[in-house]
C-alpha cells in the first residue's frame, strides 16, 4: 500500500508534520482529525529547536527561517544570592537553540499541509477498530469511517495507542510543571543591566527543583518571558486531578492553594529579577502540567502507527520534544519513499524510532531525578563543582547525549 487513504488522528505540531510526511510519501488521500475545536495557534507557551537539529529539518522542508523565532546562545544556571537581582551564575554552557511560540510553529506547519488534505477540527475519535483490509474509526457523533492506515499523533492520551497497546498508560513522575508566559520583560536595575542577556536561557535552581526562563516571540512583534517551574508539591497540598490518568490543569483552573505555593516558592528562592518575570504572569494565565513518562514496544504494528507524544512521552528536561515530533514525521516520509508496501514502510519506521524513543525517555528520567527529585546543594556549588556534577550526570561526558534531540541516522 503506497497510496491509499490515511487518517492522522491529532492535528497539532506532530499531526500536521505527519500529514505532510504522508502526502510527500505518496498517500492518495490524507485526513487530519483534531478533537480541539478552538484555534490552536493561540497556545502561547514556548518550544525550542536545537540548532543542528533545526538545520536538518530545514533542509527537509519542515521548517524555515521565516517562522518567528528568537536566538538562544547560552544556558546560565543560576542560584539566589541574597538580594542580587540576577542571582549568582554557577555555570554557563553553550546553548545553540532557537526559541518559538508553540502557536507560531504550529501555524507554519499547518500552512505547509497541502490543500487536498482535509483538516477536521472539533471531531473526537472514540474507538479504533483494525481489520485485515482497513481501520475503522468511530467518532463521538456516532459516525464511522474506514481508512487504509491510521497514524496516531494524538498526544499522551492517544486513543490510537490504546488500541495498539491496551492498558499501556503514561506513568506519573511524581512532580508537576507550573507554566506561564509573561507579556514583555520587566525593567532591569541599571546597575546589572549590562549583565542581562536575553539570548540566554536561565535555569534558576532551588532545593527540590528548577525553573527555565527564556524569551519567545508573541506573534505580534513583541515578546513573552516563557517559564516552566518543576517541583514536587507537598503532600498536604491537594491537587484537583487524578494523576494516575494523563491530564493537566488548564489556565483559569489553578487552585488558590497551588498558585500560592508556587508563588511563595518563587519569592523565597528566586533572584528578585527572575522572580518578577514569573510573578508578573497573571494567576489565571498560568497552568499545571503533571510530568509523565511513556515508551512503547513499537511505533508501528499492522495498519497502525504512532508519532510524537502518542508514542513517546519524555520529560521536558530533554529539550527535544518538538524536534522528536518533527523527526518522527521526516523518518516516516523517508520510510514511505523507500518502502514497497505499507508493511515495509512500517517496519523501517518502527526500527528507526522505537529504540530512540526509549533512549529519550531514559534521559528524561535521569535528568528529572537529579534536577527535581534529588537535587544537589546548589547554593554550595561553584562552577568547578557544578561542571563535575554535570559531567557525572552525563555518563562522564561534558555534553549530554541526546539533549535537544538526536541527529538523524544517515540513510543509504
Could you walk me through the main structural features you see in this protein, from its secondary elements to its overall organization?
Helices cover 30% and strands 28% of the residues. It has 412 residues and is α/β, with parallel strands linked by helices. The strands form three sheets. Strands 3-5-4-12-13-14-11-15 form an eight-stranded mixed sheet, with helices on both faces. A six-stranded mixed sheet has the order 6-2-1-10-17-16. Helix 1 packs parallel to helix 3 (102-112). The model has no long low-confidence stretch (mean pLDDT 93).
How do the strands and helices of this protein lay out in sequence?
Elements: E1 5-9, H1 13-25, E2 29-34, E3 46-50, H2 51-59, E4 70-79, E5 88-101, H3 102-112, E6 118-121, E7 125-131, E8 134-139, E9 144-147, E10 149-152, H4 159-164, E11 171-183, E12 200-206, E13 209-217, E14 223-231, H5 256-269, H6 272-279, E15 287-293, E16 300-301, E17 304-306, H7 321-338, H8 342-373, H9 383-393
Parallel strand pairs: 1-2, 1-10, 2-6, 4-12, 10-17
Antiparallel strand pairs: 3-5, 4-5, 7-8, 8-9, 11-14, 11-15, 12-13, 13-14, 16-17
Helix pairs in contact: 1-3, 1-7, 5-6, 7-8
Kindly report the spatial arrangement of strands forming the biggest sheet: 3-5-4-12-13-14-11-15
User: How many strand segments?
Assistant: 17
General shape: globular
Mean pLDDT: 93
Let me know the largest β-sheet. Answer: 8 strands, mixed
What class do helices, strands and sheet pairing give? alpha/beta
Q: Give the termini separation.
A: 22 Å
Q: What proportion strand?
A: 25-35%
Helical residue percent band: 25-40%
Low-confidence stretches at least 5 residues in length (pLDDT < 50)? none
Task: Report the C-alpha radius of gyration, rounded.
Answer: 21 Å
Element-level helix/strand string? EHEEHEEHEEEEEHEEEEHHEEEHHH
Report the total helices.
9
